[in-house]
Amino acid sequence: MAPDRACLRGLVATGGVITSAGLVLAATFAALGVIPILFLAQIAFIVAFGVLIDTFIVRSLLVPALSYDIGRAIWWPSKLWRRGVETTSRD
Question: What's the number of domains the chain is made of?
Fold first, then answer.
């Protein structure tokens, strides 16, 4: 399968799981924000905000868009890059 089609297929299959896991993790860190120690509340907010940015912007938009644009070169660190990835669809 071509990398662009594989990226779209993977995003459809795992998008809901990634989003719900990110929301749960952010809510867990945000729950630490009610601690009366100001330093820990600030850390909790920063981490929860970072997890939300990672969930909605990085993992849902940037990584799929980058792999869609790069195409076959997305596999450069593995053996798939050296021998070539099959680009014909079999599904």
Answer: 1
